[in-house]
Write a structure and sequence with these properties.
Blueprint (H helix, E strand, L loop, with lengths): L1 H15 L1 E7 L5 E2 L15 E7 L38 H7 L8 E6 L5 H14 L4 E5 L4 H12 L12 E2 L10 H4 L3 E5 L3 H11 L3 E5 L16 H18 L2 E7 L11 H5 L2 E6 L6 E9 L7 E7 L2 E4 L3 H5 L10 E8 L2 E13 L7 E4 L3 H14 L7 E7 L11 H13 L7 E3 L2 E2 L5 E2 L4 H11 L3 E5 L15 E5 L2 H5 L4
Parallel strand pairs: 4-9, 4-10, 5-7, 5-8, 8-9, 14-18, 16-17, 18-21, 21-22
Antiparallel strand pairs: 1-2, 1-3, 6-7, 10-11, 11-12, 12-13, 14-15, 15-17, 19-20
């Protein structure tokens, strides 16, 4: 009887240290009571019940060590700057996006749609790093070791004979390495594991310099009741891995899937935890892929990496302008070549527009690759200042090749392509345009104008339409082959149409 009472009291004590809360699977905010609509993000039916322990009983959460010798507060002038060095991934386009290479101790989040090439790129990066002597650990939580090896063989373009006991060290292969011995001799480490405790133990035992977790959605903490991929599991798994990366000074690369809402892993909590966030862009039906950084604590967020998907994996594109203009031979109505800038790189892309008579009484406005709201504003400027009636026309604007242009320098290209499609007139062959369009139809200067003109001259274009304020300093000494045409407003640029 006494034993039963003791067991009952112990059970009541354990239960008393646990409580329930309702966590939103979209934004991760915890509420004490259930509600049909999340008060934080407004998502309906998103609150899920979670049983949590008292924080004092959580022995698995790592504690931040305290350095007694270092003062808690000190003058900024007395702080020694970190001697930040970078690891070259061996892939120049990936290094460009990261700001020059991989920083030890940093956390990188790579997101993108399923099947766009995230695992392919990271396998190539891991192989290149291991080939240079960097101890690299590739942790896959979605595939087995055999599936990872088959992926590596497929990337190399040649299969090798099946072995009874395949080695745990594999090679993802790059162009020109299509022999089976490359896999057997690779120093790249792989592990198929989703348990967070086992992953941390593996990292502590192997002590790698670069760790890739593909993907973070499937990693779970066994003592938590929530399912893998939930907001609680994602926050805890990412936080513990990032803390471990800072303590052991290894670079951590996390793979995150993009949901139908366009967010990585549902909530945005991962983007706040990591140091760098890079997105895969591009259409799965096109061969090229774009990698763009939207957050980078160690570099610029304006850089863009361009790859081409081949049978041997992702290949760097040395001249993206020629790739995007491969089918643009002669000028035609509704087509204008734009000189767009992405960080330190200039891209020459084709902007197309189509105007068709509306038959339903309400004109459509569709845009692909540019902001639809800005297109609507530019159409209003054309109607007001160029005397071109577009109210009864369905207008479609597209940037060829799946490229997205975010800068306002595309205004002139959008306006001219729309006016050209409406009037059946076109620019002379070999003409590039660039400029921001104001509401008064005036053209305004954009940055890096000299760099845009030089790129157009290198590719072989003969004329460049730009704002009048940038004409004086646009050309360099070696750009004498290209003619610069200064335009004060939209009507001046329209007069160049044939």
């Amino acid at each position: 009887m006494i034993m039963a009472k003791c067991v009952r009291r112990a059970y009541i004590s354990i239960v008393a240290k646990q409580h329930s809360q309702f966590v939103c699977r979209q934004c991760g905010v915890a509420q004490r009571r259930w509600a049909g609509k999340c008060p934080a993000c407004g998502e309906w039916n998103a609150l899920e019940e979670r049983v949590v322990r008292d924080a004092a009983e959580d022995k698995h959460r790592p504690l931040i060590p305290h350095d007694e010798e270092a003062p808690a507060v000190m003058r900024l002038a007395d702080v020694r700057p970190d001697q930040m060095r970078r690891y070259s991934s061996g892939i120049g386009e990936f290094d460009r996006v990261l700001g020059g290479g991989i920083v030890p101790g940093s956390a990188i989040l790579l997101g993108g749609d399923p099947g766009i090439g995230k695992s392919t790129l990271l396998l190539q990066v891991c192989h290149s790093l291991a080939h240079t002597g960097r101890k690299t650990l590739y942790i896959t939580s979605e595939e087995s070791l055999g599936q990872t090896r088959l992926r590596a063989e497929r990337l190399m373009g040649e299969g090798i004979k099946a072995q009874r006991h395949p080695p745990r060290r594999i090679n993802c292969g790059t162009e020109g390495e299509g022999d089976g011995s490359a896999i057997a001799q690779s120093d790249m480490l792989v592990s198929a594991q989703a348990n967070l405790d086992v992953i941390i133990h593996t990292i502590q035992e192997t002590r790698p310099e670069i760790v890739v977790v593909d993907s973070i959605q499937m990693v779970y903490r066994p003592d938590m009741t929530s399912s893998p991929g939930s907001a609680a599991q994602l926050r805890d798994a990412a936080a513990r891995l990032i803390w471990l990366a800072k303590q052991m000074n290894f670079a951590l690369i996390l793979v995150g899937h993009v949901t139908k809402e366009g967010a990585i892993a549902g909530p945005k909590i991962l983007e706040h935890l990591v140091d760098c966030v890079a997105y895969f862009e591009g259409d799965r039906f096109h061969s090229h892929r774009l990698v763009r950084a939207v957050k980078n604590r160690y570099g610029s967020t304006d850089e863009l990496g361009i790859f081409e998907m081949t049978d041997g994996g992702l290949r760097e594109v040395p001249d993206p302008s020629k790739m995007f203009l491969s089918e643009q031979r002669v000028s035609r109505p509704g087509s204008v070549v734009l000189a767009a800038c992405e960080g330190t790189r200039t891209l020459l892309v084709e902007v197309q527009a189509l105007c068709a008579q509306s038959v339903f009484g309400s004109a459509k406005r569709k845009a692909t690759g540019v902001d639809a709201g800005r297109v609507s504003m530019l159409l209003a400027v054309i109607e007001k200042h160029a005397q071109c009636v577009l109210g009864d026309q369905d207008v479609f604007v597209n940037v060829v090749g799946g490229v997205r242009v975010h800068e306002p320098a595309a205004d002139l290209a959008i306006a001219l392509s729309t006016f050209s499609a409406m009037t059946n007139r076109c620019l002379p062959t070999g003409t590039v345009v660039c400029g921001e369009l104001g509401l008064g139809s005036e053209l305004r200067t954009v940055h890096h104008m000299r760099q845009r003109v030089s790129e157009a001259a290198r590719v072989g274009f003969k004329r460049f339409l730009l704002p009048k304020g940038a004409a004086a300093d646009a050309k360099r000494k070696g750009d004498a082959a290209i003619e610069v045409v200064a335009c004060e407003g939209l009507n001046d640029a329209i007069r160049e149409l044939e």
